[in-house]
Amino acid sequence: VLRRLPSLADRLRLRAVCRAWRVSATGLPPSHLHLPWLVFGDGTLLDVANNTAHRVRIPDDAVCYSAGENTFFLVHDDGRCSLMDVFSGTPVTPLPELAALLAACNVNARYELLQPITRVVVSPAASAELEYRLVAVMIRTGKFLLSTCRPAGEPNTCVALDHYFDFSIADIRFFQGKIYALSKINETLRALDLNNGYLDELPPSPSCIDVICGVRSEFAMTEEPHLQKDPWPYGHVVAGRYLVECNGKLLMVRRWARKPLISFSYYSMTEFRDKDGYDLERTRRWKKAQGLDGWAMFVSSRCSKAATAASHGAREDCVYFAHQWGRRDPDNPIGGSGVYNMRDGVITRPLLPEPAAVGGSMLWSRRFPAWVFPIEV
After folding, report:
1. Where is each KIB1-4 beta-propeller domain found (predicted)?
2. Most buried among 16, 24, 293, 298, by the most CB within 10 A?
3. What is the four-CA torsion angle of 82, 45, 139, 320, rounded to 10 degrees?
């Protein structure tokens, strides 16, 4: 029966019937031919392959943020913070020190309209490079907080890294024992060695940060195939930049959008004041990737990840991107999403052949889908 169930949700329901069924299912290989799911800020899970919606129970007094993989970062009304597994629905790790630092920064997570927390990233499990798991939190004011994630009862170390990355950050990523930050404008990449997770022993100044140069004329990518086929007369702009680990490499993904007729704003003025005062003689440069070596990439503003295409029933050398819910089409929460084929430069829309099975009453601040990766246990 398990082999005939294409839906991961149905497979999990079958295993949950009783202990005997669950034990019998452990001897079968997992069903990997399913795409990752999408999660919204109200706890709605969307099974993309089957266009079916499920719901995760979020505490009434908490605001949740996708923290990548299959993890939520919860901030309660009383200031408590914790990590929660998306599918079990149980808070697994309290983070009292990080909660205290957020309170010191006057972060009101309940004020969702301005999205005070813009990005949450959790490092992979403990390894030779990182003894402790780490949680990185980006705040709209420009601050960048980093905390260890130790078992309950053990004290955590928590620091603010805003003086290490003095620019407007587009994305952050843990990679090979370091944390990388990508500049929005110049696409400069800076990396800080995390000293195996001992945050109280970080370098006292940013002078030892590794730097990768930003945009150069040979890397402008103004002649991308999908832009050549778009007749929009006003040109295009980079609407998003994402860092993704893929097959042992750290890649930057650009998302292009049609340039609006009126693009002037106070925020666009201030973001062009990025500083590049570090020693650029030690730098490397971006190199354009021609393909993903048979992998597939899943990109969203909250969580991005790459995996072998065969492990998720995806197409090789393709980027699956999830765009936020636009106000012009409230009946389709992922209307701007699709698949970009790196081999021929073709974008296929929509991601789903029909409107997604997600309610239309969702608050605007929670209409930012993120990829989650279910694990059969």
Report:
1. 47-341
2. 298
3. 130
Reply yes or no on whether the pLDDT at 317 is more than 90: yes
Architecture of domain 32-372: 6 Propeller (2.120)
What's the pTM? Answer: 0.82
Residues of the chain with CATH 2.120.10: 32-372
The backbone torsions φ and ψ at residue 99, rounded to the nearest 5 degrees and listed phi first, read -60, -40
Q: Which of 161, 109, 165, 110 is nearest to 134 (CA)?
A: 161
Beta-strand pair 210-212/144-149: unpaired
Q: DSSP string covering 29-60, please?
A: PP---SPPEEE-TTSEEEETTTTEEEE----T
Dmax (CA) for the chain in angstroms is 63
pLDDT digits (tens, 9 = 90+) for 19-43: 888 777 666 665 555 788 888 877 8
pLDDT at 251: 92
Helix, strand, coil fractions of the chain, as percent rounded to 5: 15, 30, 50
Nearest to 301 by CA among 87, 66, 85, 42: 66
CA atoms within 13 A on the CB side of 8: 26
Handedness of CA 24, 26, 32, 37 (dihedral sign): positive
Distances (CA, A) of 367 to 45, 267, 301: 12, 22, 11
The C-alpha angle with vertex 66 and arms to 65 and 71, in degrees rounded to 5, equals 115
The DSSP code sequence of 125-168 is: SP-SS-SSEEEEEEETTS-EEEEEEPPTTS---EEE-TTT--S-
Handedness of CA 107, 113, 118, 124 (dihedral sign): positive
- Which amino acid, residue 88? S
List, edge to edge, every strand of the sheet that includes 144-149: 117-122, 133-139, 144-149, 158-160
